Q: What sequence folds into this?
């Protein structure tokens, strides 16, 4: 209960903002990507390579749906919004914050998508992935924080302010 779950595109800052957010609030921090790796005893890229995108989503759903923590900031992987059971669970255990970043900024921030292990269909562009996922992030978000063009500290402040206001999407 009382968890803060961060969702958003890969590179939006869920992992890097999440750990500092937890420090500021006196919360614990977990990154569900790291839990997946620990439980599977494989890296994310190994899981994607060996099990394919659908296999990875099944693992991602199972692991995220079984997270049991309190007063914890949870940084999820960008593809968790394909996992409805996991998202319903995370929503029931606290507030879900969508870290929104513009496609323009994201393209500048992200280098090699494949190298980062992003779940792309063959030939899919970042733009098409962004369009596919945006409605899903919006659907599951209680709060949407637009990072605009802030640095990490600036984005963190925006998240803290939004949480304080308790803005509902
Ligand atoms: N305003 C910002 N908010 C968050 N991260 C930022 C920001 N500006 C630059 N970055 C950089 O973008 C990257 C975000 O990566 P990461 O935290 O791994 O994202 P995610 O977990 O959402 O994939 C980091 O290298 C971080 O330093
Ligand atoms: O968006 C994606 O398809 C993915 C994002 C990654 O996490 P980050 O969002 O933390 O980069 C990781 O879960 C996996 O490689 C797939
Ligand atoms: Mg991350």
A:
């Amino acid at each position: 209960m009382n968890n803060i779950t961060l969702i958003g595109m890969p590179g939006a800052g869920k992992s890097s903002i999440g750990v500092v957010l937890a420090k500021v609030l006196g919360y614990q921090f977990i990154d569900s990507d790291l839990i997946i790796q620990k439980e599977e005893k494989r890296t994310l890229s190994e899981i994607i390579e060996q099990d394919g995108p659908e296999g990875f989503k099944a693992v991602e759903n199972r692991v995220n749906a079984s997270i049991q923590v309190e007063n914890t900031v949870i940084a999820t992987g960008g593809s968790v919004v394909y996992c409805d059971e996991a998202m319903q669970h995370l929503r029931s255990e606290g507030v879900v914050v969508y870290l929104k970043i513009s496609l323009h900024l994201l393209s500048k921030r992200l280098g090699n998508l494949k190298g980062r292990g992003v779940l792309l269909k063959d030939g899919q562009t970042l733009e098409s992935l962004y369009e596919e996922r945006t409605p899903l992030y919006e659907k599951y978000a209680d709060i949407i924080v637009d990072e605009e063009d802030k640095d990490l500290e600036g984005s963190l402040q925006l998240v803290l302010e939004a949480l304080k206001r308790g803005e509902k999407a």
